[in-house]
Amino acid sequence: MAPEQSSLHDLEGPHIPMLADGLAPVQRAVRDAEFATVHSRSFSPLIVPGLLQTERYIRAVLQQVSQVYGPEDDDLDEAVAARLNRQDVLAAPGHSWHHVLLEQVLWSPHGSLDLWGEQLTRLAEVARGAVPSYRLGVIKRGTVWAGAIPNMSVQFTISDDREVGLELPHTFLVPTDPDEIASYVCAFDCADRLAVYGEEAAAVIEAAAEQMGVG
Does the N terminus or the C terminus of the chain have fewer Cβ atoms within 10 A? Predict the structure, then answer.
């Protein structure tokens, strides 16, 4: 298990220099931070949660990262393995994960459609409770955002109310100020109230798969 002091702070900074040593070291650092977290809440507007990604989806995403930000992908196989190893935390005792994603994520495949059916099947399984430590919610398209923060376009992760990881196009930020953290807790709570869970969430996922022809 990673040491308790492991933190998302280890990854704070612009993407290009952070990836200078390759893709795999970043995945190992994220794994350490995840094992040091007891309760994680996160929101995704466009990408599948990292701990729920299938191997082929991971490979497609990391190849895109390499193409966009410029690191050599010589360690791609190592990075894919390291990202898959992060999922060990799902079976580790003493951790809980709560993730809300926009339905748009279900309509935004990375890589080929060939791998998308497999990925959506995984999400539907988790929505139905296949991973007891993981609660997955979906905000359906057309949902009226009543009483919710209007600008929910950034992916973020709240770790134990001690820090927030923000994934921006150019950098990764980690606010630790209590007032800033409270703002993201409020944003997440709004998303949670709008999301559907369990069988209803699984039905939304499977409907997207069927309409895209990958179900």
Answer: N
In the chain, where the domains are located: 14-212
Task: In whole angstroms, give the CA distance from residue 150 to residue 191.
Answer: 10
Average pLDDT over residues 66-87: 85
Token representation of residue 74: 């010589």
pLDDT for 78-130, tens place per residue? 999 999 999 999 999 999 999 999 999 999 998 889 899 999 999 999 999 99
Instruction: Report CA-CA distances (Å) from 30 to 37, 49, 151, 197, 206.
Output: 11, 13, 26, 27, 30
Q: What is the pTM of this model?
A: 0.92
Residue of 34, 25, 40 lying closest to 185 (CA atoms): 40
Q: Where are the alpha helices (DSSP H) in the chain?
A: 15-18, 24-35, 55-69, 76-85, 113-127, 178-194, 198-212
As a 3-state breakdown, the chain gives helix, strand, coil percent values, each rounded to 5, of 50, 15, 35
60: closest CA among 78, 80, 43, 75? 80
Place of tokens 């599948």: 48
The per-residue pLDDT of the chain, averaged, comes to: 90
Do 36 and 5 form a contact (C-beta atoms < 8 A)?
yes
pLDDT exceeds cutoff 90 at 172: no
Torsion, CA 181, CA 168, CA 76, CA 87, rounded to 10: 30
- Give the CATH class of 14-212: alpha beta
Question: What is the band of 72 on the pLDDT scale with cuts at 50, 70, 90?
Answer: low
